[in-house]
Design brief:
alpha+beta; 2 strands; 1 helix; about 60 residues; two-stranded parallel sheet
Length: about 60
């Protein structure tokens, strides 16, 4: 399923147009973003999410090419 998300501020202008455009396309749904705020903000003190590299670091050096 593919969701075509339209921001709330632009929904009045674009929702009907895109709904008609993707009406016959199977697996595509046009929706309006109704979120009120950012979910990742902690209620404690505005801590930011930490992004980490998931790849394991390998010791040593790379060979000369």
């Amino acid at each position: 399923m593919i969701y075509y998300v339209i921001p709330r501020e632009l929904a009045d202008k674009y929702y009907d147009e895109f709904k008609k455009r993707f009406d016959g396309v199977e697996g595509v749904e046009v929706i309006i973003d109704r979120r009120e705020g950012e979910r990742r903000v902690s209620s404690g003190g505005g801590e930011m999410r930490t992004l980490r590299d998931r790849r394991r670091r390998r010791p040593g050096e790379l060979p000369e090419v």
